[in-house]
Amino acid sequence: MGYCCRRMSKRERSNTLDNMVSHVVAAQQEGIRTVRSCNSCDFSSDPDVCICLVTWNMNGRVSYEDLVELVGSKRKFDLLVVGLQEAPRKSISRMLQATLAETHVLLGKAIMQSVQLYVFGSKDSELYTKELKVDKQSVGGLGGLIGRKKGAVAIHINFRGIRMVFISCHLSAHAHNVEERNSQCRHISHSLFTKSKHWNPYAPPAQLTVWLGDLNYRLQGIDNQPARKLIGKDLQAMLIGKDQLLQEAERGEIFSGYCEGTLKFKPTYKYDVGSSDYDTSHKVRVPSWTDRILFKIEDADKIKAILRSYESVDGIESSDHKPVKAHLCLKLNPNQDQ
């Protein structure tokens, strides 16, 4: 019959068990799944919600012109979510509302000093909005005294029947603080919306969770000049394997089950302010993808997501970071109960 049966040795049985355990651990540690972006929503009908997501470490500076470029003129989205870090002591809310006055209205905001989050909706969006809640979580340190508060702010919103949570965060800096950033991610994730006196432990979970911010993970295992040479040749894709965020997620430390677009754009930090040249200070930091947008769908059978774009906004030069934008479209499955 072609079968070959024999008794396994003790060592073989041990190796087989080890392999089974390894496969189980690998399945539990999903890591961050890279998804390709497409130019159109591949749904059989129009999407229920299209969301423009923006994150930007402002380095304490802002201009109206930068905000106009940040949000763009082609606003074909239902929601605009703007996460800011190191925001200046100005009314960013008023400036954004003035920028978007013709097309969108402010639905909610969450502010913890320099870490900020704004959700805007199209003119009629208030008709479809309910259960809007905000929260914040500091992760300590004295950064708030110099406009560099660390922690996260969040908004929970039910929009068009889809429960969503958006989190704008700023984590600890420096390449060696990987474990500290991991710990901060876990602390923020476990703390938001769980300590309020109005928290309902039996409430259904969010169907979409988005983290956007200066997560501050760096490139590891490559020196400055080799990294810059690859970027100069538009070969930054060869640096993805050096990215701390993806490495830690693959180890199962953080962001299990989350998705991210392909890192086709150049590392977004650190630039000389007023230019698109990488850091020429005495520190000459290794360029890194510190600024990221990650998303997670709770139940793929009930809701489908398509990432239309994931890119940096290289024309803005007022900060040492480049902003990052994503366009995400969602479609509910009408055959599934919510």
UniProtKB/TrEMBL annotation:
Domain Inositol polyphosphate-related phosphatase: 47-336
Short name of any one Pfam family annotated for the protein: Exo_endo_phos2
One term under GO cellular component: plasma membrane
GO biological process: phosphatidylinositol dephosphorylation; response to abscisic acid; response to auxin; response to jasmonic acid; response to salt stress
InterPro entries: Endo/exonu/phosph_ase_sf, IP5, IPPc
GO terms of molecular function: phosphatidylinositol-3,4,5-trisphosphate 5-phosphatase activity; phosphatidylinositol-3,5-bisphosphate 5-phosphatase activity; phosphatidylinositol-4,5-bisphosphate 5-phosphatase activity
Taxonomy, superkingdom: Eukaryota
Protein name: Inositol polyphosphate-related phosphatase domain-containing protein
Family from the record: Belongs to the inositol polyphosphate 5-phosphatase family.
